[in-house]
Specification:
Helix content is 80%, strand content 0%. It is mainly alpha-helical. It has 2 domains: 32 residues; 212 residues, MetI-like (MetI-like fold, Orthogonal Bundle). Helix 2 crosses helix 10, helix 3 packs antiparallel against helix 8 and helix 9 runs antiparallel to helix 10.
Amino acid sequence: MKLSDFTMRIYSIAIIVSVFLFWEFVCRAFDVSQFILPPPSSIIHTLYTRFGALQPHLVQTLYTTVIGFTLSVVIGTLIGGLVGTSRLAYEAIYPILVGISSIPKVALIPIFVVWMGAGTGPAIATAFAISVFPVVVNVATGLATTEPELEDVLKALGASKADIFWNVGLPRTMPYLFAAMKVAITVAFIGSITSETIAANRGIGNAMLVASSNFNMPLVFAALLMISITGVLFYTLFSIVERRFTRWATRGRDPLA
């Protein structure tokens, strides 16, 4: 039986609330120390009382993450377009990208610090480095999977390569690009926060590091909750925009049916 969207939302909210209630119950029933695992009530209380102190750190993390993410989308789309349309570029560039992507990004942070100094620069660079590869891969895949028969028909009608790219290749790539963006924004937060724990005096990562050094685990989890909510909001935003621009790609389908 097909469930309505409203019913699905109610079920989803109920499951999420149940997880937090179970977490609260376990912490209370087994008297788990807050140093080990603070209960959700303590985390929410800490977030409420310390929001003013965490807000500047959140703004800094958002700043570095959004810039790194934006650079990854722009540059990743350009590289992905080149890789997806040129056999030579695929053979020459793709192995380099795979090699760079295989490097743990935490190992790059000391290099970024030497190049840019501690602070904002390494966080932006790390967010970019960790999020650009999904964009490149998805854009290249979208272009490479364009039906050759369709390209042949357009060429027979006199369309140039640029016409084919703008009218067929780019629209065909949009679902892949939005999928990449939803992944990239979440990992971009990981890159920024990782850099902030190593080479910054501001940001959520630095706030978590200071809080953990003071054994204030509720504040650590409050910072994690804050960045988690922010990541979910960004993901939801891109999902809404994706449905607006790529509805044609899923017409007639209902994954919940």
